[in-house]
Design brief:
Layout: E1 7-9, H1 18-26, H2 44-57, E2 85-89, H3 95-101, E3 106-111, H4 114-127, E4 132-135, E5 148-154, H5 163-173, E6 174-186, H6 190-203, H7 212-217, E7 224-228, H8 230-236, E8 242-248, H9 253-259, H10 271-285, E9 288-294
Helix pairs in contact: 6-9
């Protein structure tokens, strides 16, 4: 099991990337933090297991038809990608990139770490898909100005050493009128404001040993992590001509964040009603802030 101890930074704070890279190379984004699937195996059975873990969680808001359809399809505009230049910044184990490739995009997939690139290349080999897959630091992209029609980055840039710099790079390599689809952690989420402060800090008495940022870091992935408000994100992206915000979360997590150890009370509700309550909360106060930026 991976033990979290993320260094929680403000939106305008920076940190060096060496330890950040080491953390992600040791803990690639496979979502199996409890190691229920054992060590990584580079085969279709293993990829199917980690994809199911991620896909089932996001049935709440972003891919309600899962396992049919595409991952995060209510946020990522796959139907617009045909014959377009698309960059996935932070490809992890390659699930999103594989669905972008299946949308007939001219795709480039990058990640900071060797292990993520190995995972993505193996997935594409198994599925017989094509992408320009490269190890690259998002803060120093090697692409020319005005290269991409779309950029997709799900849960990546809030872990970067210099978030402002990575957003400048996104702006630089987007074509005029190009769009970036980005997810960052929401500071005004139930998880951050209620679960971390009340259920962990007060109810579980963690404030006797830890400050608030340390409590947040104890349940947050990465070596570095940030949580942002819409204002924080707007301040960092003032060079973009347009911004649109939405929110989401995963099945069961929103009720746990709101009700703490008593969240199972919702299991007494009819399943559709429980789902509707969680979906409403996720779209208002979910941990995932989804931002569409237009150059």
């Amino acid at each position: 099991m991976v033990k979290f101890n993320a260094k929680i930074l403000n939106s305008d704070q920076n940190a060096e990337n060496i330890k950040n890279k080491d953390w992600w190379n040791s803990n690639p984004m496979i979502y199996d933090w409890e190691k229920n699937f054992g060590e990584i195996t580079y085969d279709k059975i293993y990829f199917d297991k980690i994809d199911e873990l991620f896909g089932e969680g996001h049935k709440l808001v972003n891919n309600p038809k899962w396992p049919k359809g595409k991952i995060l399809e209510n946020f990522i505009p796959y139907e617009s990608f045909k014959n377009k230049r698309v960059l996935e910044l932070g490809c992890g184990a390659g699930l999103v990139s594989s669905h972008i490739a299946q949308s007939d995009a001219n795709l480039s997939s990058i990640d900071l770490t060797e292990n993520a690139i190995k995972l993505t290349k193996k997935r594409f080999e198994i599925l017989n898909l094509k992408s320009d897959i490269q190890q690259m630091d998002g803060e120093n992209l090697s692409f020319h100005n005005n290269t991409f029609d779309f950029i997709v980055s799900w849960g990546v840039i809030h872990h970067s050493g210099n978030m402002k710099k990575i957003l400048k790079e996104i702006y630089r390599v987007l074509k005029p009128d190009g769009k970036a689809y980005i997810m960052v952690y929401n500071k005004n989420s139930i998880r951050y404001r209620i679960y971390c402060f009340f259920w962990l800090g007060i109810f579980k008495l963690k404030f006797f040993k830890l400050n608030f940022k340390e409590i947040v870091g104890s349940i947050t992935d990465g070596y570095i992590a940030r949580h942002l408000t819409e204002k924080d994100m707007s301040d960092l992206t003032n060079q973009f001509s347009g911004k649109n915000f939405s929110y989401s979360d995963e099945v069961n997590t929103t009720s746990m964040y709101l009700m703490g150890p008593f969240y199972r009370i919702l299991y007494l509700f009819p399943k559709k009603l429980k789902f509707s309550i969680e979906r409403f909360l996720a779209k208002k106060f979910g941990w995932y802030m989804e931002v569409v930026l237009k150059k």
